[in-house]
Each structure stands twice: as C-alpha cells, then as structure tokens.
Amino acid sequence: MNVPNILTLIRIILIPIYLMIFFSNMENRILYAGIIFILAGISDILDGHIARKHNLITKLGSVLDPFADKMMTFAVLISFTKAELIPSWILKALGVKEAIMILGGAILYLFKGNQVLPSNKYGKIATASFYAAALSIIFHLPQGLSKGLFWGTVVLNVLAFFNYFMSYLTLRKKTHP
C-alpha cells in the first residue's frame, strides 16, 4: 500500500472520530470536530498531490478516495442537520447527488470493466465550496454568509453532477460500442 492510499485510509478513520467528537458533550465540540474535518481535508489534498506528483495513482486509491470524500461529506451534513446548524433540504439535495454518484461509480467499476470516473475541476470546485460552507459554520461566521455559501455549494454540486453525468455517459459509450 502506497502513501496516498494510507492517507486516504487515515481520512476514513477520521470520520468516526469526527462523529464521536461532534456528538459528544465536551465543550467546543463543534470546533474540535471541525479540526478533525480540516485534517481530513488536508489529507485529501496531500494524497492527491503525492499520487499525481510521484505517479502513485492506483485503482484502489481511485475508488477509496471518492468513497472517503463522500463519507466525510455525509458525516458533516448529517451532523450539521441533526444539530440544526443547516436545514435538512441541504442534506437531502447533496445526499441525493452523492447517492447517485456512488451508484454510478459502482456500476462503472463493477459492471463496466473496473472503470473509474475521474475527478475533475467541477467536482473539486464543488468540494472546495462545501469546505468553505462547513467551515463558516464551524467558525461561527455570520449566518447570512453561511447560508449563502451553502446555497452556492448546492448550485455548484448540481453543476458538477451534470458534468460528471456527461462523463459517465461518455465512459459507458466506450464500453458499449
């Protein structure tokens, strides 16, 4: 197992730690959970950078990395919704998008010759937007700003979804002449 894949596994391990801290009774629990979230984000950037720079991209990493991203996204969205920090429609909108992405990714990988839909700039922008929106909650920025960032995140995720959907259709055509 290479360094990028180890960093991805660490990110997966950070998810239950984030949840345990977020739902604990400790003082400043949201801030401490936010620090775990930031560490997960840093490990995400590092694993991608190291994998590309040193040509350590693997099929395992191509599957585990988006899985880790989606699970952390769900953890944050569910915890924020349960704590009433964001409205439930945001969880529903992003949750439906992520569930469809997981299903599409599974179909490509399992039934279309281990194909993996590569990440792209639209997905990265949507992810960066999600991090900005989540951090605005964690660091108690003005509510209007957080609300605007989450609206922007939903819009960017919908745009990224359509871009990924077009890529998915292109990959499916290549496997079905």
Automatic annotation (TrEMBL):
<dbReference type="GO" id="GO:0008444">
    <property type="term" value="F:CDP-diacylglycerol-glycerol-3-phosphate 3-phosphatidyltransferase activity"/>
</dbReference>
<keyword id="KW-1208">Phospholipid metabolism</keyword>
<feature type="transmembrane region" description="Helical">
    <location>
        <begin position="148"/>
        <end position="171"/>
    </location>
</feature>
<dbReference type="GO" id="GO:0046474">
    <property type="term" value="P:glycerophospholipid biosynthetic process"/>
</dbReference>
<keyword id="KW-0594">Phospholipid biosynthesis</keyword>
<comment type="pathway">
    <text>Phospholipid metabolism; phosphatidylglycerol biosynthesis; phosphatidylglycerol from CDP-diacylglycerol: step 1/2.</text>
</comment>
<keyword id="KW-0472">Membrane</keyword>
<feature type="transmembrane region" description="Helical">
    <location>
        <begin position="30"/>
        <end position="51"/>
    </location>
</feature>
<dbReference type="GO" id="GO:0016020">
    <property type="term" value="C:membrane"/>
</dbReference>
<dbReference type="InterPro" id="IPR004570">
    <property type="entry name" value="Phosphatidylglycerol_P_synth"/>
</dbReference>
<dbReference type="Pfam" id="PF01066">
    <property type="entry name" value="CDP-OH_P_transf"/>
</dbReference>
<keyword id="KW-1133">Transmembrane helix</keyword>
<keyword id="KW-0812">Transmembrane</keyword>
<comment type="similarity">
    <text>Belongs to the CDP-alcohol phosphatidyltransferase class-I family.</text>
</comment>
<dbReference type="InterPro" id="IPR043130">
    <property type="entry name" value="CDP-OH_PTrfase_TM_dom"/>
</dbReference>
<keyword id="KW-0443">Lipid metabolism</keyword>
<comment type="function">
    <text>This protein catalyzes the committed step to the synthesis of the acidic phospholipids.</text>
</comment>
<keyword id="KW-0808">Transferase</keyword>
<protein>
    <recommendedName>
        <fullName>CDP-diacylglycerol--glycerol-3-phosphate 3-phosphatidyltransferase</fullName>
        <ecNumber>2.7.8.5</ecNumber>
    </recommendedName>
</protein>
<dbReference type="InterPro" id="IPR050324">
    <property type="entry name" value="CDP-alcohol_PTase-I"/>
</dbReference>
<feature type="transmembrane region" description="Helical">
    <location>
        <begin position="89"/>
        <end position="111"/>
    </location>
</feature>
<keyword id="KW-0444">Lipid biosynthesis</keyword>
<dbReference type="InterPro" id="IPR000462">
    <property type="entry name" value="CDP-OH_P_trans"/>
</dbReference>
<dbReference type="InterPro" id="IPR048254">
    <property type="entry name" value="CDP_ALCOHOL_P_TRANSF_CS"/>
</dbReference>
<feature type="transmembrane region" description="Helical">
    <location>
        <begin position="6"/>
        <end position="23"/>
    </location>
</feature>
